[in-house]
Each structure stands twice: as C-alpha cells, then as structure tokens.
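Appendix B, Record 12. Input sequence as logged:
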Amino acid sequence: MAIPTPTRQRRRGHDPESVLSIAVGVFNERGYDGTSMEDLARALGVTKSAIYYHVPGKEQLLGRALDRALDGLSEMVADERATSGPAIERLEWVVRQSVRILVDRLPYVTLLLRVRGNSRTEQVALERRREFDAFISRLVKEAAAEGSIRPDLDPALVTRLLFGTVNSIADWYQPSRGASSDDVADALLTMAFTGLRV
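Logged structural output:
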C-alpha cells in the first residue's frame, strides 16, 4: 500500500485587506514618504507588479488606510448618542468611543496622526479631522452653556488638550500589557472630567 505524500503547501496569496494591513505597518515604520513600492513589495513577498493587481499605487493604499481610521470617527459623530441628550454625556461618550476606535484601529489611527498634508489624499484626511475637531469643540461649548463644565476654559483649547491626550495613546498603548480600551477610557474620563465638572 502506497504511503500518501503530503500535498505541497502553497504560499498564501494576498487579498486587498492583507495588502492594506501590511502596507500600513510599513508606512508606520518607514514613514509614508519614505516608503517606496519596492519596500511594499519586499514586505509583502511579491513583485511590484503583483501589488498593482490590488491597488493602482501607493497613494491609494494611503487613502484606504486613512479612511479606515476616519470612517470610524464619522460613524461615531453620526450616532444618536453623540447628537442627543445632555452635552456632557455626549462628550463623555464621544471620548470613550474615540479611545475604542483608536485601540481597535491602532495602526490606521497611528498613520492618520502622522499625516502632514503633503499630498491631496493627506489634505482630504486633514480636512476630515478638522471637521471632527469642530464637532468636539461645539460639544464642549454646549456643555459649558449647560453649566456642566467650567465656562472659563476656551472650548478649542479644551478640545485640543482632551484629544491630544486621546491621540497620545497611539504612542504608548500595547494590547499585550493587559489594559483594555475600556480601562484606558475609564482612567482618561476620570482624570479629565473630574477636573472639568463644576
């Protein structure tokens, strides 16, 4: 009786999702401007022509990656919990959700936070970020007008400080260390809102 020979394992091909995920890792490591298509091909273990099967070029990969981060924020601000109810509760919910989005989409948000506007794709992403910042600033103004937070603090400054803290999570957060997004959000909210509440 013949012993069956093991079937030859084929190397797993890439789909658009895996191409994007690996590209984001390379962009974060080398910087978008410092990454060539050759670098991406090497990281993927394919030829440059194989990448073009999935995407027209490097900037389209960047656009998809930035959309992954920004779409989460857009969905959040459109949610009823961000648009109705007392402003302080909406602000707390938005901060908590922002932490969750950052942790869930960490490589994509990290890339977004490094964008400087050097291309049309980056400029569009920065405009979307400005819209989000304006939404938060309005929310802070509403909370101050309701008497829920201190009225003597500039809403734009509060927004920058609060979301500067949220965004800093991208620099140090490591899921392997055990803190969940809820743990991080609880600590941030306790620290920020205990100080902000009247």
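The radius of gyration is 21 Å.
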